Amino acid sequence: MATHVEIPAATIAGFPPDKARRLFELMVSANKGDHFHQLGLAIEHVDARCVRVRLPYGEHLVGNPDTGVIHGGVLTTVLDTCCGFATLTALAQPELCPTMDLRIDYMRPATPGKTLYAEGEVYRVTDQVIFTRGVAYHETRDHPVAHCVANFSRLDAAIAAQMAEQITRVMDSLEGAHEPKQ
Amino acid sequence: MSQSSDFADLVRQARAQQRPELLTQAIPYARLLGIQAQQHPDGLRFLMAASAGNVGNPTLPALHGGAIGGCMETAAALHLLMHMDTLKVPKIVDFSIDYVRAGKLRDTWVSCDVVRQGRRLVNIGINAWQTDPSESIARARAHFLLSD
């Protein structure tokens, strides 16, 4: 996504994009009726340190009944989600870090009827904090609806290790189900 | 759209009758989150009742941070619609949120505080809590543009 990505070498060994993508697809689809389902959010693209999500337009997202423009809060969820997912692609082990803070600048209203895309990217990983930034748009990133920066706090090492083990177990069992044993 | 839109009429009615719920019912996204508005001795309060539809992490379970942020932003816009002269949904310019405690799957309350009203821009602070107003789960601030 961007040109300057500052990631310590020790932290990028890890979670491969294809595996991360399967995890994200599981996270947005597994829990029927949750907030991902409420909005209609889907994973569009995953690569190292960057995640793109997709949200088709819907009447349920409207914040201004006069214009049909979707609510800014929808952008908050979409950007928080893609930035949060992006943190996973920059870590050696899967660790779901909570959002510490998030700032959004609204460049222009989203266009009624159009699908929204949002990309989140990690630009710095430390032992305590992961720094991300994101952009939401319709056709092209050069014509953004909103920009954001979001920071995520790392978990305690013991909790992170336990979580990584759980996630890996779930992922392995799913992969086992996808690839029948010979 | 014109000042005589259905929504502008609703805003007039909501103010005249002190019934902010007329506006929450008219905004689809506010209905999606399940936001209710109530008059309280300390001012307008908003409630996002505990709902599976706002969950982002099923294992804790915890509300999606975006639902909390979306609720706070909606509350701020509604607060301005009830208190300012504008008849249109105010335009959000920027929004900054600090998540300070876990947002559990519980009723979440929100109150707003206009920090400064300029001629066209308003700075508004927003507090969200679940059990005690002094124990915020999130604090936010936003700038809105009031259109004519």
From TrEMBL, chain A:
InterPro entries: HotDog_dom_sf, PAAI_dom, Thioestr_dom. One of its GO terms (molecular function) is 1,4-dihydroxy-2-naphthoyl-CoA thioesterase activity. It comes from the Bacteria. Keywords: Hydrolase. One of its GO terms (cellular component) is cytosol. Transmembrane segments: none annotated. Residues 68-141 form the Thioesterase domain. Pfam families: 4HBT. This is Uncharacterized protein (TIGR00369 family). It comes from Simiduia aestuariiviva.
TrEMBL record, chain B:
One of its GO terms (molecular function) is thiolester hydrolase activity. InterPro entries: HotDog_dom_sf, Thioestr_dom. It holds the Pfam family 4HBT. CDD domains: PaaI_thioesterase. Residues 63-135 form the Thioesterase domain. This is Acyl-coenzyme A thioesterase PaaI-like protein.
